[in-house]
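INTERNAL AUDIT FORM
Audit reference: QA-55
Scope: verify that the stored structure record matches its stored sequence.
Auditor: D.O.
Record contents follow.
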Amino acid sequence: MKIERHHFLIVTAVLILSGAAWLGLADRRARASQPTDSSVQPVAVILAERKPLASSVTLSGEFRPFQEVDVHAKVVGYIRKIYVDVGDRVKTGQTLAILEVPELNAQLQGADAAVRRARDAIRRAKGDMDRGESLHAATHLDYNRLKQASEARPGLIAEQELDDAQAKDKEGEAQIASDEAALSEAQNQLDISLAEQKQLSAMSDYTRITAPFAGIVTRRYVDTGALVQAGTNSNTQALPVVSVAETDLFRLTLPVPESAVPLIRLGSTVTVRVSALDRNFEGKVSRFADAVNQETRTMHTEVDVPNQDGSIVEGMYADVNLTLTPRPIRLCTRLMEYRPSAHRSANADGRSELACASRTRDTV
């Protein structure tokens, strides 16, 4: 009984294996009977068309005032009065501080006295010249009379008397020439005195320190009574009085990479994003170095950003999105034709074909 059951299991296993082998062979024959093309591969396709493609670069920069200067004293002196402090807004020509320079005041008084003395010398020289001309006119007239009388009646006038009259006439001419030279010297001395007076007066005006332009005081270095050195002396470490910056307009300096340098255009409008203020500002590309830095391979570029409301502060960082100027390029792509009946890609003549389409890339 056990033997018959064993034979039955063996026969059943053989039948199952035979059926599986037959089904596999039939499936392979069915697949072999279908047409295939091993060269067909799925690809992604897109319709080529002409349209602007935005291309931009985002750069970070730091805000700097449009103008910033350390205001120095022109002359050495003590601070008599300082009128401004950090954060004060000033106008062009506004007085920032007054210096006390006692020796300069004394020099200016001496220059005024020298001018008065030179003018007195001119008046004296003119008086001497007028007197000399009068004396010469009288002596010349006497000489002419004696000479005419001597010619009319020879021997009437002694030769000695005639020679004395002629000598006095020439002496008068010489005195007039001397008086003219003295007057010219007095006039020259007046010019020198006036020049010295003008110079000292100008130096005296420098005791009043004024703002060179409208802006805001960013630093104050001295207080009342402090001694300040002249900023023109390179041998001393002259301390400035204050620092003034123009903050109504800021410069945003950007390092433009070498690849984008040919695409920068003056006057281009850009969007400036200040993360610290969570605001966007409008700026304009105003200037660039037109040279690439040999170390960083970037070009120094400046964007002017108005700051009428005073929200931007010196030293803030901002991001600028520079949109590049459109420049056409050529793009080639392979056009594929799909035939459901053949299940392969080909042209009408059965060969592949290349077609070129145009696109643009945005540049600044």
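Auditor finding: record pair retrieved intact. Confidence is low (pLDDT under 50) at residues 333-364.
Action required: none
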